[in-house]
């Protein structure tokens, strides 16, 4: 299937999703918001994809939300104020759901960020499991600079990724945060010299994850996302229920056998998600 904003490939159990509109700075047009959750959900539902890398093309990772998302819905027309007030919340929730799909996926989602990660792009990368950057990358909560409060996930997720005061400074000032500063505060895991080494390095990390038991990784992701928003006692309760239904002794035995035989373990894929 072809997409306006993305190129999708699968190799060695890794899904690679590329933002593919470099001449338009990979802005997030209406099709972006529809296709991204569809792509990620389909990769998750397959069962044989164990990690996903989202990278980009061109000078910038993404310049964020395209104005057409608002103009196409009539929400910028003062004559439609009543309709705007009635439907804006629905639009925002739909946009939010596009990025929540990254958290809902059964496998880890890794971001490879070069150049500008601006506005809505910050919302997106905050919903991923891990973030990696090239030396020229920078992050801007651009909504602040255009008289708008960010509303697609940055304000909710960013303070749980980096120190609260650092997040507030980034949001309140609308300043750029460099790749090195992002690494210092924990927003990105690693900084690579350039775009090529960034994508290669992120795919290598995804390949390392893909060698693990996919059921184990799915359970770990479920538990870590849940524990971010719940108390320790609640989170311990959650993982006990997960283990009751999902613990797989066969995977543990294969891990021990592979270690003893000095080979890579061979774990079964997740079952495909049931169709409706």
Brief rundown of the structure:
The chain is an alpha/beta fold and 276 residues long.
From the spread of the alpha carbons, the general shape counts as globular
CATH architecture of the largest domain: Alpha-Beta Complex
Q: What's the helical proportion of residues?
A: 40-55%
Q: What's the multimeric state? A: single chain
Summarize the biggest pleated sheet.
6 strands, mixed
Structural class: alpha/beta
Kindly report how far apart the N and C termini lie: 21 Å
CATH superfamily of the largest domain: 2-enoyl-CoA Hydratase, Chain A, domain 1
Strand content bin: 5-15%
Our count of domains comes out at 2
Indicate the mean pLDDT.
94
What is the CATH topology descriptor of the largest domain? 2-enoyl-CoA Hydratase, Chain A, domain 1
CATH class of the largest domain: Alpha Beta
How many beta strands in the DSSP annotation? 9
Strand order across the largest sheet = 1-2-3-4-6-9
* Number of helical elements: 11
Which value, in Å, is the CA radius of gyration? 20 Å
What order do the SSEs take from the amino end to the carboxyl end, as H and E? EEHEHHEEHEEHHEHEHHHH
């Amino acid at each position: 299937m072809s997409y306006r904003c993305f190129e999708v490939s699968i190799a060695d159990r890794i899904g690679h999703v590329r933002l593919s509109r470099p001449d338009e700075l990979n802005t997030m047009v209406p099709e972006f918001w529809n296709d991204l959750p569809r792509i990620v959900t389909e990769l998750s539902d397959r069962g044989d994809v164990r990690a996903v890398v989202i990278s980009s093309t061109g000078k910038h990772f993404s310049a964020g939300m395209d104005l057409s998302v608002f103009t196409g819905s009539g929400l910028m027309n003062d004559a439609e104020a009543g309709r705007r007030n009635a439907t804006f919340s629905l639009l925002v929730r739909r946009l939010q759901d596009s990025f929540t799909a990254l958290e809902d996926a059964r496998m880890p989602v890794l971001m490879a960020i070069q150049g500008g990660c601006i506005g809505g792009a910050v919302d997106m990368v905050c919903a991923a499991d891990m973030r990696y950057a090239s030396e020229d990358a920078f992050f801007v909560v651009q909504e602040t600079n255009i008289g708008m409060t960010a509303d697609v996930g940055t304000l909710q997720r960013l303070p749980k990724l980096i120190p609260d005061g650092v997040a507030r400074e980034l949001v309140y000032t609308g300043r750029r945060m460099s790749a090195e500063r992002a690494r210092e505060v924990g927003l990105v895991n690693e900084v690579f010299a350039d775009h090529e080494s960034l994508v290669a390095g992120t795919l290598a990390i995804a390949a390392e994850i893909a060698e693990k038991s996919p059921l184990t990784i799915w359970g770990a992701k479920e538990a870590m996302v849940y524990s971010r928003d719940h108390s320790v006692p609640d989170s311990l309760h959650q993982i006990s229920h997960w283990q009751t239904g999902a613990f797989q002794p066969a995977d543990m035995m294969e891990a021990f056998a592979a270690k003893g035989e000095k080979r890579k373990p061979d774990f079964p894929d997740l079952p495909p998600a049931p169709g409706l």
